Every structure is written in C-alpha cells, then in structure tokens.
Input
Amino acid sequence: MGNTDKFLSIRNLNVEYTSGGDVIYAVNGLSLDLERGKSLGLVGETGAGKTTVAKAILRVLPTPPAGIKGGEIFLDGEDILKKPEDKMLDIRGRRISMIFQDPMTALNPTMKIGDQIAEIVRLHSDDSPHEVKHRAMDMLNRVGIMADRFNDYPYQLSGGMKQRVIIAMALVFRPELLLADEPTTALDVTIQAQVLEIIRHFKQKFNSSMILITHDLGIVAENCDTVAVIYAGQIVEYGSLEDVFDRPSHPYTVGLFHSLPGFAVGEARLHPIGGSLPDPRVHAAGCSFYPRCPRAADGCAAGEVPNRELSPGHFCRCLCPEV
Ligand SMILES: Nc1ncnc2c1ncn2[C@@H]1O[C@H](COP(=O)(O)OP(=O)(O)O)[C@@H](O)[C@H]1O
Ligand code: SF4
Ligand SMILES: [Mg+2]
Output
C-alpha cells in the first residue's frame, strides 16, 4: 500500500470519540487503497471501526463526539479531509454516496418515498421540477419499484423495498464511490440476494468503486475484488480476494474463516474466535490481537507490529503470519 495514485487512498487515518470523559480510539493508523471500478470488502466484527471509516470518508462523523486526529483521504489524488464543507456538499451524494447501516434512520417516515429521492436530485442539480420528478420515478423504476408507488410512505413498504429506495437514493447521481455499510444485514436471505444483485448491476453500469462493509465473508466472496480485514481500528490483512481467501495469513483472518461453516481451512472444524475486541479506551502497546491470538509469542505484546507485504499486494500486520 505504498503509492497514492489509486482512486481512493486512505493514509494513516486516526479517529477518536470522546464519551463520558473517556477517549475512544476507534480508528488507529488505518491505510487502504481502492482502484476505480473495483470493490473492496471491509470485514471485521462489530466495534472494529468500519462505520467510522466510511463516515470519515463521507465526512459525516458527528463532531463532537468524533474527531479526525490525523491522516489523509485522497480521492483522485486530492485530500478530501482538507476540503471546505461547501466543496464536500458537492462531493457528497454526487461523487461519494453511502448506504447507511440502519435502514430505518435512512428514510424519513413522514415523507413519500418518491419525494425523498426527488429531494436529493433537487439538492444537487438545477433540474426543473418536472425533470426532478421524472428522474426520481426513473430511479425507482430501475430498482424495481413501480412508478405508482411514488406516493407511498416508508411504512407501506416491505424491508426489501425500503432498502431498494435507499439504494435508489444513494445511486441517483451515479456516484464514483459507493460506501455500502452492511446493506443487507437487516434483510432475509432471498431479499439479500436481490438487493446485492441491484447494487452489482449499478456498480458495473456506472463503473463505480465500492467499499462493501460486512461481516459476511460469503457476501465478500461474491461481490469484491479486494479484501481488508479490520481489527481494533487497524487493517490487519489486505489483499486480493484470492490472497485473503486462499492464503489467509493473519491469525484473526484465519479465525474468521475457521468460525464459518463451509469455509473452514486446514482442519475443517469450527473454532469461533474466543474473547472480544480490546477496550477501545486503552492505547495498548504491541499487537491489539495479542490477548486472543493462538499464535501469540513473547515479542507480540510490545512494540510496533509491522505491516508486511507477504507477496505483491498482500499485506499482513503480524509478527508470525501463517504462510
Ligand atoms: N457516537 C459514538 N460515540 C462514542 N463512541 C462511538 C460512537 N460511534 C462509534 N463509537 C465507538 O467507536 C468504535 C468503532 O465503532 P464503529 O465504527 O461503529 O464500528 P463497526 O461499524 O465496525 O461496528 C467502537 O468502540 C464504538 O463503540
Ligand atoms: S503479532 Fe503475534 S499476537 Fe499479533 S496476530 Fe501476530 S502472532 Fe498473533
Ligand atoms: Mg458499523
């Protein structure tokens, strides 16, 4: 992850929250690259920092309690953390858009769904009222919702349909970068597949890049080109889908695969990873996975753990990776 000529390059990002007098170290020196038109799966357990990273890219972190304490986020070579808010208004929704984790908060319950899409078009374009409505209807149609539902309120729609409306809102301006934060977690399996198919279709059509946040490795396998495994606000393993799925090297990644039926590598038994994420209020020295790691050695508890390139483009932050 050396160069910054990629479409999206995050360098050494640090984000903290202040809460009840405590500092929560949510993102700790995180670096990531994404090429144009490609999909990156950002995988890790709840609390690892995934949503914080996505909101930092879109610059919608609530400040306070959140604060970006360092780092750079380059979009096409320009550091968007340095952009004034009026420039961000332009970027948000047009160049970068996000499907938020909680579908219920993404829709306004008191507003017709068609108007919610139209509102976004109005905000970001000079289209006439007629054109705005036409564009909103067209977008609804494209996600498989008939135009006669334009005047429905969110409560009149099923969970899957609500998520389609949210996708329509996120994609109406053909964003160059889509941040999809657990876009199907709240849906049942059949609807999940339909929603992912819609996202895949648009992504391909617009050549958008995507960060797909999920804890479901099956979804990553079907939708992503590269994978980043996040633990305690750091990327611990990064590489192509083949690198990470065929040669998982960080003990945490190996643990994620071992805890999944049908994905187990090596000994084909299920081993859920014991323990939980470290206390995010503590900035401990050494490897953050040390207390849970089956390969932990004496040297792991102190000092910086280097991010090694195991093979071209395959990185692992571990002193004793599985190779
Ligand atoms: N608004 C907030 N105030 C305080 N702490 C927060 C807030 N949002 C997230 N955090 C903390 O930041 C860390 C990362 O959270 P988050 O980015 O939501 O992780 P993920 O999306 O991977 O579940 C967690 O320790 C979480 O408790
Ligand atoms: S550095 Fe040590 S403790 Fe950390 S993941 Fe690697 S082997 Fe485990
Ligand atoms: Mg989250």
Observations:
- The chain has a mean pLDDT of 91.
- Residues 8-83+209-317 form a domain with the Rossmann fold fold (CATH 3.40.50.300).
